[in-house]
Amino acid sequence: MSLAALLVLADGRFPAGGHAHSGGAEAACAAGRIHDAATLEEFCRGRLHTAGLVAAALAAAAADGLDPAALDEAADARTPVPALRATARRLGRQLMRAARATWPAAELDALAAAFPRGAHQPVVLGVTARAAGLGPLDAAHVAAYESVSGPATATVRLLGLDPFQASGVLARLAPELDSVSRRARQAALRARADGPQALPAASSPLLDIAAQAHADWPVRLFAS
Description:
Blueprint: H1 3-10, H2 25-30, H3 37-63, H4 68-77, H5 82-102, H6 106-114, H7 121-131, H8 136-159, H9 163-194, H10 205-215
C-alpha cells in the first residue's frame, strides 16, 4: 500500500469534481434540517451509515477486483432516484479523467471504454484505488470519508458555519468512519463468494426525495 497515494486520492483538492456537489446538504440546509454543527453531525452520521456504507462497499469490491460492470449494475439498483444516478455517473466520469492522468492503467482504460458516459463513482473509485496500488479497505475509507466531508465543506459555504466546527464534526465521526469502512470491506469479501447481491443496500429515502427535488431548483449553489 502507498500511504502517499491514499492521501492524494482522499485529498479534497484532487480534481475529481466533488467540490461542486454538496451530498444533499444544500437541500437539507434549505429545509432547516441542517442549521448548526450539531445538526450537520446528525446529517453526516445518517449519510455515512446509508449512502456512505453502500458507496464504501462498492468501492472496496471494485478495488478487490470484482467485475466493475456487475458492480455498476449493482450501484444502479441501489440508486433509485434518477438525479442521483446521473450525479454518480457524472462524478465517475470526472474521477476517471483525473485517475487516468494520475495513475495510468489498463483497467481504467477498459472501464472508460465500457462506460463512455461514466460508471458510478464508487466503482471508478475502487478501480482507481487498485491502479494506485491501494487495497479494498483503503478504497472503503476514501468512499466513507467522501460521504461526510463533502456535506461538511458545503455547509461551511452554505451557512457560513465556522470551519473549525465542521472539522470537529468530521473528527468526532472518525471512529464511525473506521467502523463503516471495515463493514464495507467485509461485505466486499462476501461479494467475492456470493456476488454483488451480498453488498449492502442501505436506503435513505429522505436523501433520495430531497435530491430529486433539488435537481429541479432553478437556482442552486451546488450541482447536487
